[in-house]
Design goal:
about 280 residues; five-stranded antiparallel β-sheet; 12 helices; four-stranded antiparallel β-sheet
Length: about 280
């Protein structure tokens, strides 16, 4: 039977990790506890971080926000500054799971689970998020795009936790778009998802674009070729259709029980057509 440790602050957390170096660290547990119930993971101590207030909340400075890794999806959804500055993220959060899952699940857990279908990942990729990784000795910062290396695999080292996410304020982007396709309208794991930031001139010419897809590759997929195809063109159905045709070359989906690779690729490209709608 697993022992559960409940540190109340970071100092207690480091002591727990020193005493139990093989322990699994979690906050909401909406992924880890499911795996344990399926008997995929067992026979180790558990360290629950939900009581550590240093790892929750949102802090703002002049250029960015720092989001505590143990901040729940529900808290982010209702945070006025997050809703104002990052509608692409709040839209993704609103599609994630159910109210009980959003009340328990945390943004740090969604990142560290490293699922290709993680709903917060495409928005955080287009927002160029950095991750703050902490040990008892200090912190290091790594781009999210370099953190996840494969499904379920990250660059998190032993004795290290994800303590926060730093997201720059996306100044100048008039369009923030997120959409996902699943097998049903709610409680759905993404067959394909897409996040987009688009900046246009007063005449509607695209000046900058960042596009990221989820669930169509081993990690989140971004395509410089697709983004380049948008820049300098009027935001129009014809422009988006041409970019959608390029998207298939960047994606590497798989067949699974939820969808075929061909269907995923087509849907992912078609999601581009909805930018600005």
């Amino acid at each position: 039977m697993n022992r559960v440790l409940l540190p109340k602050n970071l100092s207690e957390l480091w002591s727990c990790l020193e005493d139990e170096p093989e322990a699994k660290v979690y906050a909401g547990g909406t992924d880890l506890l499911v795996r344990m119930r399926a008997r995929y993971e067992n026979n180790y101590a558990l360290i629950c971080m939900e009581r550590i207030t240093e790892l929750t909340g949102v802090r703002e400075d002049e250029t960015s926000f720092r989001i505590g890794a143990c901040t729940t999806f529900s808290d982010l959804l209702t945070h006025p500054q997050i809703r104002e500055h990052f509608p692409v993220l709040t839209k993704a959060l609103s599609t994630l799971g159910s109210p009980p899952i959003r009340n328990m699940g945390t943004i740090g857990g969604n990142i560290c689970t490293a699922s290709p279908a993680g709903d917060t990942l495409p928005p955080l990729y287009v927002l160029d998020a950095d991750l703050i990784l902490s040990t008892q000795a200090g912190e290091r910062v790594i781009p999210l795009s370099a953190f996840i290396t494969a499904p379920g695999k990250t660059r998190l080292e032993k004795g290290e936790i994800l303590s926060g996410i730093r997201v720059k304020k996306p100044g100048g982007y008039q369009i923030q778009h997120f959409e996902k396709v699943g097998q049903r309208k709610a409680l759905a794991c993404a067959i394909a998802s897409m996040a987009a930031l688009v900046k246009t001139s007063p005449k509607g010419v695209i000046e900058s674009a960042r596009i990221a897809w989820g669930s169509v590759g081993p990690t989140v997929v971004m395509s410089p070729d697709v983004e380049a195809a948008l820049i300098g063109r009027t935001l129009s159905p014809a422009t988006l259709k041409a970019a959608a045709e390029l998207a298939g070359k960047a994606l590497s989906p798989i067949d699974d029980i939820r969808a075929t690779a061909a269907y995923r690729s087509r849907v992912a490209g078609n999601l581009l057509l909805r930018i600005g709608t």
